[in-house]
Amino acid sequence: MDDLPPLRAVLAEHGLDPKKALGQNFLLDLNLTGRIARQASLATIETVVEIGPGPGGLTRALLAHGAQRVVAVEKDPRCLPALHAIAARYPGRLEVVEGDALKVDFAAIAAGPFAVVANLPYNVGTQILLDLVAVPEWPPRWSELVLMFQKEVAQRIVAGPGDNHYGRLGVLCGWRTHAEILFDVSREAFTPPPKVTSAIVRLTPREEPLPASLHAMEKVTAAAFGQRRKMLRQSLKAIGGEALLARAEIDPQRRAETLSVAEFAALANALE
Ligand code: SAM
User: 219 and 201: one domain?
Assistant: First the structure.
C-alpha cells in the first residue's frame, strides 16, 4: 500500500501500548483499513476528516486510496510522531490536529465540504455521531459519514419501527439521513480485541428531510422513548399527552417503538 513500516512496527517504535480509557482498539490489517476507506467516495470528496487516527492504519488507507486531503484529529499525543511520518510520505495531503474530537468544530477545520471516516473510540462514538446529525442547519456541511461502531449501536442507528433496536438514535438518523450497515468487523480484527463485534455504517444526508424542528424532534423522541413500554398518552403527558396526540392524529394507545419517522415529525409539528 505504501513504503511506510508495518503497523506493528509503528506501535513498537513509538511505544503505543493501547489505552482503554481512550478506546484504543487498533486496526493493524491494511487490507481491512483499505476496505473501509474504499466505502467513502474518495474521488469526489474535498476533505476527509478522520477522528482518532491512532497509529494511522486507516489514515494510510485513505491516502493510498486517493483521498485528496485528510484532516486527522487525535487526542493521544503519543500517536503524533507516527502520524507526522505519514504526513511526510504524502506531502500536503495530511494535516494532523492534536485535540479532542468532542470539542473540535469539524466544519471549521475542514474549511469546505467534508466527509468523516473513522474507527471511532467507542466511549465517544455516539456523541460524535449526534454532534454531526443534530446540527442546526440542514443540509449539513458533510456529504458522507463512514463510521465504525459496536454492532449494537450500528443496529440502533439503522433501526426502524417495530425493531427492538429502534429508539431516539434511529428516529433522528432516519429522519435526516439514509443510514446503512455495510459490513461487520469481527473482534479479532482489532488489537486488542474489544468485547463485541463491530460494524461499519454509512450515512448520507437526506436532501429534504420531513419538515420539523430539531428541537421539537428531540423533545418528542426523548419523552416517547424515555418510557418506551408505556402508551404514548402516558409517556407524552408532560408535553401535551392526549391533546398533542390528537393534533398529530396518532392513536394515544400506541407505543413509541411503533411510530414511523413521519409520525414523530407530525408529533414534533403538533408540539410547536
Ligand atoms: N483509527 C485507528 C485505527 O483504526 O487503528 C485507531 C482507532 S481507536 C478505536 C480510537 C482512536 O481515537 C484512538 O487513537 C484514540 O486515542 C482516539 N481518541 C479517543 N478519544 C478521542 C477524542 N475524544 N478525540 C480524538 N481522538 C480520540
Answer: no
Q: Please tell me the distance between residue 140's alpha carbon and the centre of ligand 1 in angstroms.
A: 24
- Of the residues 205, 223, 253, which one is the last residue of a structural domain? 205
Integer Cα distance of 117 and 36 in angstroms:
8
The tens digit of pLDDT for each residue in 102-124 reads 999 999 999 899 999 999 998 89
Residue 220 CA, ligand 1 centroid: distance in Å: 33
Please write the tens of the pLDDT for every residue from 60-80: 999 999 999 999 999 999 999
Task: In whole angstroms, give the CA distance from residue 267 to residue 264.
Answer: 5
Cα–Cα distance for residue pair 114/70, rounded to 1 Å: 10
Q: Is the CB of 170 under 6 A from ligand 1?
A: no
Specify the CATH number for the domain of residue 126.
Answer: 3.40.50.150
Put simply, whether the predicted model's pTM sits higher than 0.90 gets the answer: yes
